[in-house]
Amino acid sequence: MDLSRAVTAHTELLARQLELVIAAREDVLGEAWERALVSASQCLGLGQAMVEQAHRAAQGGPRPSIAQVTAIDAHVEARLSQEERRALVLEAAKKLGPILPTEVRAKLDASLEAADSTSPRFADKWARSAPLPADPLLQAGLEAGVQGLLSLAHGSFNRALLDRRGSPANVARLIERVLRTLGHYHSHLADLLSEARATSLGSAGPQAALVARWIRMQIPALATDAARLHHAYRSALEDGQGQLAERHGSALARLTMLSRELMAMHAAMERLASCGSSLPPELAELERRLGQLSLAQALPHGRDVTLAHLSEGIGRVEVAGVAKEVTTSRSDEGRLKSHVLLEDPSSGAKAWLDLDFVHLPHLGVHASAFLQATGEIRPRPGGGLELKVERLALAELAERDWRAALLRLSRRWLRPRPNGLNLIWSWQPQQASEGVRGASELRYGKTHRLPQGERE
Q1: Given this model, what pLDDT does residue 113 score?
Q2: Do 430 and 158 contact (CB within 8 A), yes or no?
């Protein structure tokens, strides 16, 4: 297939990716649960196919075929006039320009500015000078995979909420199952590290592909368990069983974070599985540091203190509770901030959380969510106390921790801890009519930003 056909196929492929990402997102946000699960699965499947095609292209294999990958009519291009085909290739050339190698982009820019760029023969001229890169396929495939998994998770969670099972009798089994999944997760990462050290990071690709497949199998089950745990948590709150609500809420928040981390790790595994022996700079640097990395079991957190026992000067602590209010604001310097009024379901004690550079409602965090956060206690302007939620030094942690290093490979597509905040929260329903939009992150995507000049 010559490049003009490859560019057309590539453009159609990216269009199909965008179409499925939007369909999966809108089906979840529109609360069409059965349709959402189908579109999410299609989005995830297309992402896998794009990653596989990118891997084959990087190894010198054939470029992707529209018919093979997207099921779009392979003869559609044949029905285009020469002028329509030229316009399509010109559009694709402009879109692909920023991601082409420097020398190829220079030729493309020169061609676009030249008078003969209006000629129908432009596509053929560009075909001889600019090989289509595989990287855009990989990037789009990874994005489709993450968006498909997120939509699948929120869709499975909300559909399972229609099932009222969530009694305390089966909560213990749910938590046991989640703990087993967590154990398997750490075991997979340990095995992958051993394989990479024994051979090479590129040779560990097949092992990474198996981990990615295992993750895809876990997400619907974890989301279903989260829904049942959510019912138990809400029932305990409504019945005034504060200690039980706190146990269930904490378990639900940890399950939510595990699920989000697995979805981010899926993108990292797909990147490793697709690289082969030719490692991009970021992966080559990771391979160089393999001997320095170990697998930590947990991120650092503060001393566990209940809201009823907070006091100024207590130091670095971890607090937990039910969100009673969630608001956002801008500081005088224009800094995006979120504020949460947290309540201890056992004692009724309250305190505020203060978070920088994050919009919690856009992450699906609303009133009644259960949160756990670590930071420093300080006086709140206007009276009372607040916890300034700390930011974890994830880049520094990735210098010595295998798990953190892998998660940095996926930070472009999903960050389990936005802006590195030492915070976890529980999933909530998508019930727009009641003002609860637990799947908001599907619409808003990355809802954090770094302070200017600060390293990711």
Answers
A1: 56
A2: yes
